[in-house]
């Protein structure tokens, strides 16, 4: 195996594999593997635009699996040199960082979880990447997928998985102290012999970007291993089932259904509002964004774990209720894309919908666009082409719609085969203002100017 080591570790991304041999796909030793600097769909947000500084701040897992931050200056069109913020004990990309930017410009980075404590760092000065302080960990010890959002001036809410449920907590002092956690969702374990394989929650969230009391929308699915017959006869990757929904506008103390009715907490499987029933297939959530009226659009895959064949779907809340539209297909449920809402006549999805390494996660990044509010979709741009390896784990830059259009999404690029020819992982970005995708080129120096 060769490994390109010409770039410093902090300018490259983590390569990671996860899962086990799948009997139905000979030769695929791991369910997914490859470039994971921006993994995974449940790590959000990872990139945020600041109108005050005309910068996009971006966190990722570097080649040493260390939480790393950089920024892109939209005026000079340069990336600052990455700053390594801490370390992780292994190469598990589930420990990748997430990012919050408060109203005063202080940056907050969350990392190190995946069933472990989530560490929280805060910049010592607004919009400054060069000096940081470690503040209090999240208040529970076995957290995964921390998703922080500014929900009112001075208040950050973080939701996360605390297996088997999904919880949230808030801070009003920059992460030095945290509120008592709220258990939002807990579906229980109907079969104790299976442990949490039948009940863990996978969720994506999004907050409004302005206002004194910002709504947070939460969509989730339930982990499940499949039918008893499948478990007995096949080695199948565990499905995630269905799409469920809730929202809050008080920092997570109360949660509601689409019609405004209040949930009794925690939300159970019997009381949850089910937006999509996948039957005996599976659901992999990819993104959630808001339209101009503040209503959510949910991007996900409906996939089959025997063949990995996947359909890209969007659930959208409308005045008439929730509707589902189909975008296209791809060949792996861990093909990870992002949804960009610009207007009713310009909704886009950036996703690896053309395979490079068949039935491995990732591929060529394609732009899909809807000009009729998400009813129909067309493949409008080949963002990448003729790639040797796979592009994957697309992350949308939050707040990008207020920027100049030269940085809308970021992602990772590398070899998704196992074993790989190389574990070198590069970082890419795209905005139509550039006219094409680009490998990220970092500016000299370690300080964000």
Report on the structure:
- With 449 residues, this protein is an all-beta fold.
- It has one domain (9-439): Methylamine Dehydrogenase, Chain H, CATH 2.130.10.10.
- Helices cover 1% and strands 42% of the residues.
- The protein has one helix at 228-233, and strands at residues 15-18, 32-35, 47-50, 55-61, 67-73, 78-79, 83-84, 98-101, 107-111, 119-123, 132-135, 143-152, 155-162, 165-171, 182-185, 201-207, 216-224, 239-248, 273-276, 282-290, 296-303, 310-318, 321-330, 338-343, 346-354, 364-370, 378-382, 390-396, 409-414, 426-430, 438-439.
- The strands form 8 sheets. Strands 3, 4, 5, 6 and 7 form a 5-stranded antiparallel β-sheet that branches. Strands 8-9-10-11 form a 4-stranded antiparallel β-sheet, with no helix packed on it.
- β4 and β5 form a beta hairpin.
- It is globular and about 55 Å long.
What topology does this entry show?
Layout: E1 15-18, E2 32-35, E3 47-50, E4 55-61, E5 67-73, E6 78-79, E7 83-84, E8 98-101, E9 107-111, E10 119-123, E11 132-135, E12 143-152, E13 155-162, E14 165-171, E15 182-185, E16 201-207, E17 216-224, H1 228-233, E18 239-248, E19 273-276, E20 282-290, E21 296-303, E22 310-318, E23 321-330, E24 338-343, E25 346-354, E26 364-370, E27 378-382, E28 390-396, E29 409-414, E30 426-430, E31 438-439
Antiparallel strand pairs: 1-2, 3-4, 4-5, 5-6, 5-7, 8-9, 9-10, 10-11, 12-13, 13-14, 14-15, 16-17, 17-18, 18-19, 20-21, 21-22, 22-23, 24-25, 25-26, 26-27, 28-29, 29-30, 30-31
């Amino acid at each position: 195996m060769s490994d390109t080591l010409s770039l410093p570790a902090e300018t490259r991304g983590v390569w990671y594999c996860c899962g086990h041999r799948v009997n139905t796909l000979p030769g695929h030793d791991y369910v997914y593997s490859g470039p994971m600097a921006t993994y995974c769909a449940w790590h959000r947000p990872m990139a945020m635009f600041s109108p005050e500084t005309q910068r996009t701040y971006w966190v990722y897992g570097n080649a040493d699996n260390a939480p790393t931050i950089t920024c892109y200056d939209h005026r000079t069109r340069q990336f600052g040199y990455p700053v390594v913020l801490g370390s992780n004990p292994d190469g598990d990309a589930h420990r990748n960082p997430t990012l919050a930017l408060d109203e005063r410009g202080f940056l907050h980075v969350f990392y190190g979880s995946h069933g472990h404590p989530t560490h929280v760092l805060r910049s010592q000065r607004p919009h400054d990447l060069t000096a940081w302080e470690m503040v209090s960990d999240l208040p529970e010890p076995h957290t995964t997928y921390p998703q922080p959002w500014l929900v009112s001036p001075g208040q950050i809410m973080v939701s996360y998985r605390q297996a088997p449920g999904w919880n949230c907590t808030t801070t009003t002092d920059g992460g030095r102290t945290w509120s008592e956690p709220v258990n939002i969702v807990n579906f229980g374990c109907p079969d104790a012999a299976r442990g949490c394989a039948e009940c863990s929650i996978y969720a994506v969230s999004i907050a409004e970007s302005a206002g004194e009391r910002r709504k947070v929308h939460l969509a989730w699915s339930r982990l499940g291993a499949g039918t008893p017959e499948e478990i007995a006869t096949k080695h199948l990757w565990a499905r995630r089932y269905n799409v469920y929904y809730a929202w809050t506008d008080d920092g997570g103390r109360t949660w509601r259904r689409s019609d405004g009715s209040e949930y009794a907490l925690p939300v159970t499987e019997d009381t949850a509002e089910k937006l999509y029933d996948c039957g005996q297939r599976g659901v992999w959530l990819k993104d959630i964004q808001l339209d101009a009226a503040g209503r959510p659009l949910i991007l996900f895959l409906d996939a089959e774990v025997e063949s990995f064949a996947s359909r890209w779907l969007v659930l959208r809340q409308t005045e008439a209720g929730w509707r589902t539209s189909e975008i296209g297909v791809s060949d792996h449920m861990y093909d990870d894309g992002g949804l960009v809402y610009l207007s009713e006549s310009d909704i886009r999805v950036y996703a690896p919908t053309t395979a490079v390494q068949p039935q491995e996660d990732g591929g060529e990044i394609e732009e899909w666009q809807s000009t009729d509010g998400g009813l129909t979709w067309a493949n409008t741009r080949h963002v990448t082409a003729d790639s040797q390896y796979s592009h994957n784990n697309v992350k949308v830059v939050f707040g990008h719609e207020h920027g100049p259009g030269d940085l809308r999404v970021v992602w990772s690029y590398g070899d998704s085969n196992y074993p790989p020819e190389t574990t070198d992982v590069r970082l890419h970005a795209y905005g139509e203002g550039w006219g094409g995708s680009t490998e990220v080129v970092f500016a000299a120096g370690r300080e964000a100017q």
